[in-house]
Amino acid sequence: MIYNLHKCLLFFHSSMESIPPYLLCSFFLIIISCLMPYFTQAQTYKNISLGSTLIAKQDNNSFWASPSAEFAFGFQQIQKDGFLLAIWFNKIPDKTIVWYANGNNLVPTGSKLELARDGTLVLEDTNGKQIWNAESNNTGSVSYAAILDTGNLVLVSRDSVLLWESFNQPSDTILPTQTLQGDIKLFARYSEKNYTYGRYNMTLQEGNLELHVTYSPRDSRHHVYLTSETDGNTNQLIFNQSGFIYLPAKNGSIIQILSSDAVSPQEFYQRAILEYDGVFRHYVYPKSTISNGRWPMAWSSLFHMPSNICFMKLGQSGDDRGMGPCGFNSYCQMEQGRPTCQCPEGYSFTDPNDESLGCRQDFVSQSCDRETPETDQFYFQEMKNADWNLSEYEHFQQVTEDYCRLDCLSDCFCAAVSFVDGNCTKKKSPLSNGRIDASISWKTLVKVRKNFSSFKPGRADSEDKDRSTLVLIGSILLSSSVFVNILLLLATIVVFSLHSRKRSKVLQPRVVLPGRNLQCFTYGEIKEFTNEFSQELGSGNFAKVFKGVLNSDSGDPVAVKRFYNIVTEGEQEFKAEVNAIGQTNHRNLVQLLGFCTEGEHRILVYEFMRNGSLASFLFSKSGIKWHSRIQIAIETARGLLYLHEECSTQIIHCDIRPQKILLDDSFTAKISHFGLAKLLKTDQNLTVTEIRGTKGYVAPEWFRNMPITVKVDIYSFGILLLELICCRKNLDLGAEDEDQRILADWAYDCYIDGKLHLLVKDDKEAMDDMKSVEKFVKIAIWCIQEEPSLRPSMKKVTQMLEGAVEVSIPPDPASFFSSI
Prior knowledge:
By secondary structure, the protein is α+β, with helices and mostly antiparallel strands. Among the domains are: 43-169, Agglutinin, subunit A (Orthogonal Prism), CATH 2.90.10; 328-449, no CATH class; 459-508; 610-820, Transferase(Phosphotransferase), domain 1, CATH 1.10.510.10. 23% of the residues lie in helices and 27% in strands. The strands form twelve sheets. Strands 36-37-41-42-40-39-38 form a seven-stranded mixed sheet, with helices on both faces. It has a five-stranded antiparallel sheet with strand order 29-35-32-33-31, with helices on one face. A four-stranded antiparallel sheet has the order 1-10-11-12, with no helix packed on it. A hairpin with a 5-residue loop joins strand 20 and strand 21. The chain starts with a helix and ends with a helix.
């Protein structure tokens, strides 16, 4: 005690000169609180002996209490038959949780916590599986456990040494007398009632207190969005008994006081929590009053935290795209001091149970076909004081609002525009980091397709009710004539008979192709849901693709591929595509929904990919960000791996290129167009066939009369990967330097010469991640080896892309044949 008192006085002396006058009052209160514990009665323990157990049950009595009963440790039921091992304030109505052990893995009724005879504190489920344990290097020396009146759970040795304590293993909350130091972190929960790890954490790192965010709870990349800016001069965060939260310097002086509202520990409960919205807040609760259970907030401004959380900048430079409090296509708005996520008109939540995941577009995107620009098919939803500030791709000055609107209508990539005082900014999809606030001067216009929802729930029922009502009214009005009533009754019977017959015809089950979950459509049905094939999306050698909307409750858009001038080759392509696609089921392959073989008609119906082909973005002015391009490469590789190794029938695609990779509304990549696919039986690994594919992506063996294997797809993928890395086509005859015209050759030269930065010199994100650039270029070089046997399998390519397998140094792609 004398040593600690002396240390406290030294702290007082060393801090005097470093504290500004306006903080002296707070400083003296801190000094008093520093001394207070030594003038109060020592902490009492309520021992928990070895062999003690707790069983998770629904009566809420399965806990161990502290001596004052202000804190309890045990099981709290969070969901139906789901229990959390936790510490909570036990004398307030809502039993506020301040520490928990198994937030990512709730346990069922009957699970057991035991302080075993060997000193280990272990949580096991009903099957005896260990879910959590208090890890200590000296469990054999444990004499007992205790939950203290500070809220600290401890394991204590025979000579009263603390061998383990929950204060050193915090979850999302710290309590008075608790200190964070070293690499200890606070992890925010996912939501108010979901105790799994969320997107935010707080830690002391390199002498600064930092708040970090991830793209998602499963992401390992952390981005600093707030920092104490203490220049590496602190290694502790102290929450003292009087309610002061501050950062001391390494020499003991105070650098920053984060909370200076002094309260009496005898009169108030306190806690400081990193909440699920990413804000670190300090709360107090009066002990003398049994309130409604809500904690009045004492302080909530950490460092440079904006008062409006929707304006928090999450991440660094371009990495923060989509990382606001709300996800893509949604916007953030403050309500009662908390951020809420909402969708603009024409959009709905991707997951209604988790609004932070963003919104999906409920209408078909604008066609990029210049012959059918569809400018008359869209309108603008006006949103005042709104902006999506990280979706900008083009800006105009000194223009009118009408000019701004028309320019967006004529641009198929434009999802919204923001306008103020002659300034017009175009936004691309998906809309990112949206927020509404009175401080925003912009008015944002969100582009929405007219009549995007042709079906409303309950519409058929309401029509039936309306029809029934009309018949009833008519009967009453004509009741003066028995004869007319009889006629009316007969007419009513006929109307309902016809209506029932029509309903039964509509509801009868469709023909499904045996062995596959494909609907067989009639030609008339397809004409109806494509509006007589009125909206063409594209065309090829044997087919055209049209946009349509299924006549179903969901009103889902579809892509309809109609084959024409069917000759032998076209017929073969149709059969190949049905056989190939119909047997697949993978998230990175475009799904075939149905077909039509009525008479001479050959038609396929696919899921609709709202964002079109990868080529339309990759080679456009707007481009795709570095991390998104790499994700597309990984997703394409997974799709090919499925085709090559996981299908019941092995499939060679034969035409992998950006035009064949489609993007859905969340920019997930899916492989399409299996018309050129060559199917192999399960016991067959090579075949000989005519040349297929597209110039520039075709493997050399096609021209050497060599057997064709799945390695032709590996070659094409390698070219695609180089195009994704460099955001340019493999063949560019307009390149100023002749050595740069063929991307594959130029990329290998840059790799050998140590000049890979030339490939991505205009991409800041890629330039900041040159280690990854080098890895992906090496993978691409392995894929484009002219000797097929040297190319890795798609499984190994996927593992290299995902980082599960190291990438070795590749040889010169042409070295094998040049040495023959």
